[in-house]
Amino acid sequence: PPLDAGLLAGITRDFLFEVAQDHGVPMREQVMHDEDLFGADEAFLTSTTREVVPIVRVDDRQIGNGRPGPVTATLLAGFRARASTVIAARGRSA
User: Fold this and answer.
1) Do 57 and 63 form a contact (C-beta atoms < 8 A)?
2) What is the dihedral of CA 64, 28, 84, 12, to 10 degrees?
3) What pTM was computed for the model?
4) Per DSSP, what are the bridge partners of residue 36?
5) Taking a C-beta distance cutoff of 8 angstroms, is the pair 36, 56 a contact?
6) Strands 61-62 and 57-58, how do they pair?
7) What is the tens place of the pLDDT at every residue in 4-60?
8) Rounded to whole angstroms, how far apart are CA atoms 94 and 50?
9) Coil, helix or strand for 40?
10) Are 46 and 10 in contact (CB under 8 A)?
């Protein structure tokens, strides 16, 4: 969702937008409604401590096929690879 929908601005969120662009995954900000979530093939959330977290169920409703999907897996792998590169570069400059 866009920040003006009440979402907190975060480094992890911004970082994931960059990762998505690097991997050709279209990403945009959009206000989401229940029907958007429940009709999705897959969903995830971002977290500083948990990185990219697949959402496979909300209450008693399954999202997609109930397993993490390929886009989520791609973004998580890309996130970790890019984070490792950034950490390594910072280590070399310290």
Assistant:
1) yes
2) -90
3) 0.85
4) none
5) no
6) antiparallel
7) 888 888 889 999 999 999 999 999 889 889 899 899 999 999 988 999 999 999 999
8) 26
9) coil
10) yes
